[in-house]
Amino acid sequence: MMKRIILDTSVYGELINETEVADTLRKLVPSAYVIYGTKIIRDELRDISKEAQMEGKSKRNMILQLYDSFVKKDHHDLDATTLIEIIASEFYRQYRKNGGSKSLKEMITDLRIVSIASFYSLDIVVSNDQKSMLSEPAITAYGNVCREFSLSIPEFIIYRNFKEMVIHG
User: Does domain 3-168 have CATH number 3.40.50.2000?
Assistant: First the structure.
């Protein structure tokens, strides 16, 4: 069964370091996986320093090219609407209620990404961010708010487990 996935910004940095995983994933798109993106993630990737180098090439350009190779179609680049912002705000309110300590400024991008995944009924959110996006207070908040708004709750997978899923099927 095909899985609809959004990769957090942190995952793209991992993928350019692990070209075999990126190549395998590229072969599985769109038969096993469809990768979605959003301007929020692309803008974060664009914020990488133009001077950052990897193997003599611009790390920023490499990551943006990787992003573009996964998020191929226009309708796979999901919009952050006013409703997405409302859901993200509710996630934060619930996150703080659950004992989460990070500021809204630290959390807002992650909350918007999860809001997009929930609103558009994506299956999986992949991240390496276990201190904020994948923290227990945040995961609990997503579940509570999604149930309250009758939204789907995506599965949250850390990059290491996603890599295993891609390589070993």
Answer: no
